[in-house]
Amino acid sequence: MAGDALLTLDRVRVDYHSALGVVTALPDLSLTIRRGESYGIVGESGCGKSTLLMAILGYLGATGRVSRGRIDFDGIDVGTASREALARIRGRGISIVYQDPNAALNPTLTIGRQLVEVPMLHEGLDEAAARQKARRILSDVHLPDPDAVMARYPHQLSGGQKQRVVIAMALLANPKLLLLDEPTTGLDVTVEAAVLDLVNELREKYGTTLLYISHNLGVIAKVCDRVGVMYLGELVEEAPVRELFAHPRHPYTRRLLACVPRLDTDKHETSFLPIPGQPPALAARPPGCPFGPRCAGFEERCAAGPVPAEAAGDGHAVRCLRWREVDGFDAGANEAVRPAPVQPETVLEARDLSKVYALGNAFFGMGATRQLVANEDLTFDASKGEILAIVGESGSGKSTFARVLAGLQDASGGKLMVLGQDLSRLPAQRRTLEQLAAVQMVFQNPDATLNPSHTAGFSIGRALRKFGIAKSSRDVETQVHELFDMVRLSPELAHQKPGRLSGGQKQRVAIARAFAGDPALLVADEPVSALDVSVQAAIVNLLLQIQARKASTIVFISHDLALVRHLADRVVVMYLGRVMEMGPVKSIFAPPYHPYTEALLAAVPVPDPSVRQKHLRLQGEPPSPIDVPKGCRFAGRCPRRIGPECDATPPPLRDAGGGHFIECHIPIEDLRNAAPVLGPEG
Predict the structure, then answer these.
(1) Which of 108, 278, 386, 642 is the most buried (most CB within 10 A)?
(2) CB atoms within 10 A of CB 291
(3) For residues 364 and 3, what is the distance between their CA atoms, to the nearest angstrom?
(4) In contact, 560 and 572? CB cutoff 8 Å
(5) pLDDT digits (tens, 9 = 90+) for 122-160
(6) What is the 3-state secondary structure (H, E, C) of 272-328?
(7) What residue ranges of the chain are covered by domains with CATH 3.40.50.300?
(8) SS3 sequence, 464-489?
């Protein structure tokens, strides 16, 4: 149970000073976190979440300062504390886990060297005692063989292992408050679930208070007791986690939740409702309610002055003058997105497609050549107007297939038919202009698509010229503007360089460039994984609208199964280069499951605390693709392994009916009798 207050912010104002004047990041923030509590902060990028963390740590840099109010941590005013007092607070009092573990780990030092520094600095332990404590904490975060881990460098660990090391480092000084800044962003869903389980376990073991920042509402629902919703530096709503998800009162909170994909609905049943516009710049803060310019319920009185917090229930506070009328603000049917109908024409067909990399000989040409098997015997197809999702953990071969499809690599065997032509051994430089235009790609990072030295419209105009769609400068400019309009961007932005655009705007430009050649097949490789939930919803709606207009086929690669549930028509589940399961999206998300699919679904953070979710976690790491298992590739991690045949014999492909196939030794009826991953709380 949470106790008395550990951290209190009382009307805190944080300003940044520059040559252009003073910019206010946090205008008037009050917040209390009790001992032993897990408190979550959610909101879009630019809403002040990271500034809040830096203010709590007393590290706002040379230009930032707390210009009003008090930050009280365990009886100490952080804002007026001396440098020596802050040094004592950072580590033993407050520790932080950053989003990117690579930013916290020195690539030139071993893990052990970096860990032992913490207890030596903060507790005065000698090296031997510090090393012993580091071993113990590595065991607590479930890293096997701590001595081997301590002898390695960061690049020798996986992303999940590095994040566990960073959590161990933060806990080594026994902090009273642990700050977590998006610690699972970018991790596989199975690794994310393991890290969240670890955070909860360590909280119970050490009694640590948590302040968890995330834009993933499913994560917040899983690990937090109370939630604060932040917009433009203000807490617009605060409530216990169950109360907030069951009865959101602020229009901003409601629209955030309307952008979150769920495992129980799809694009035919519901549409995302993205928030219109973007948060304004801090220097252009609107008067009154900061959310007013984007709110469907905005009235003149909302801009008249500061909006006070009102009680909206037990422990529930909301800053909105019209929160009692909020049910009437929700968007109407005009915002519904109608998905494209799937047509019988086959656009993509993979048959026994394989990609193997020859690694060369291990000992100066002596011995057999080693091979890395990235894809093996992939067999599936996609029809016109269909969205085919490919899911799986990192290293499962998803992106390798995408690169072969886009012509960035050639296949080692099998066929890859696109519009009746085999492209499996035709790299991009050997494809005709028609073949190049037929398959276009949207990458995870739009910066990989857009040249920072040229304008946003340059790459689109270049594609139009290359594919012969537009020739004169006037035609190019006209069609660039039409494509910008298609992706809901102002044509004036075509003359801006990418550095002046937001992440969502850059991804829209990348989508416009991909559609410049009017492709029959779009390959989208994690196109929204790095975006805020509201921007993600807008991009997904945009893809659906463009697809419906152009009847294009989309291969959507993702590790976000909730998003796949909403978007896809059919799903291919891959593991270590092979297809484990494939079928219509509704079939994949209900029994019978392949045990691997079941584990993936059990790991998805569900944005509803009232839903019961099966607890099923995969142990260990996937095998090396250089030394693939002889039998089922998933056997070594399978929680439902039935016997030696799983290790020795490749599993049969079982037909579950309705185009649903599962590659597994377990009979279909046994798989069908498994309890669903999700169900009502009981």
Answers:
(1) 386
(2) 25
(3) 65
(4) no
(5) 888 899 999 999 998 898 888 888 999 999 999 988 777
(6) CCCCCCCCCCHHHCCCCCCCHHHCCCCCHHHHCCCCCCEECCCCCEECCCCHHHHHH
(7) 5-224, 346-350+379-570
(8) HHHCCCCCCHHHHHHHHHHHHHHCCC
Can you give 589-603 as a three-state secondary structure string? CCCCCCHHHHHHHHH
CA distance 13 to 206: 32
pLDDT in tens, 564-595: 999 999 999 999 999 999 999 999 999 999 99
The two tokens of residue 171 are 């806990």
Cα(284)–Cα(279) distance, integer angstroms:
10
Give CA separation, 234 vs 98, 520, 563, in Å.
22, 46, 29
Euclidean distance between CA atoms 582 and 661, whole angstroms: 5
Question: CA–CA distance from 362 to each of 152, 251, 359 (Å)?
Answer: 22, 61, 8
Specify the amino acid at residue 46. G
44/274 Cα distance (integer angstroms):
12
Burial class (CB within 10 angstroms; exposed 0-12, middle 13-18, buried 19+) of 64: middle
Q: Which residues of the chain have pLDDT under 50?
A: 1, 333, 682
Gyration radius of the chain's alpha carbons: 26
Which residue type does 83 have? R
Rounded Cα distance between 133 and 270, Å, is 51
Q: Compute the residue count for the chain.
A: 682
Structure tokens at 299: 């009235």
CB 315 within 8 A of CB 244: no
What is the Cα–Cα distance from 386 to 23, expressed in whole angstroms?
48
CATH for 346-350+379-570, among 2.40.10.10, 3.40.350.10, 3.30.70.141, 3.40.50.300?
Answer: 3.40.50.300
Q: Identity (one letter) of the amino acid at 144? A: P
pLDDT, residue 80, reads 86
671-373-149 Cα angle (round to 5): 85
**What residues are paired with 575 via a beta bridge?**
578
CB 570 within 8 Å of CB 382: yes
Residue reference for tokens 């332990």: 125
Phi, psi of 604 (to 5 degrees): -70, 125
**Whole-model pTM?**
0.88
CA separation for the pair 613, 194 (Å, rounded): 14
Is-contact 635 368, C-beta < 8 A? no
Name, in order, each residue with C-beta under 8 angstroms of 426's C-beta and a sequence gap of 6 or more: 407, 410, 435
What's 5-224's CATH class? alpha beta
Measured at the CA of 252, the angle between CA 246 and CA 258, to 5 degrees, comes to 60
pLDDT for residue 1? 44
Cα–Cα dist 583/660, whole Å: 4
pLDDT of residue 233: 93
Query: Which of 103, 105, 107, 81 is closest to 94 using CA atoms?
Result: 81
Give me the amino acid identity at 16. Y
Contact at 8 Å (CB) between 567 and 391? no
293, two tokens = 């310019």
Q: Cα–Cα distance between 415 and 164 in angstroms, integer?
A: 41
Cβ 438 vs Cβ 521: under 8 Å:
yes
Helix%, strand%, coil% for the chain, nearest 5: 35, 25, 40
How many helices (H) and strands (E) the chain has is answered by 21, 26
For residue 677, the tally of other CB atoms under 10 A from its CB is 24
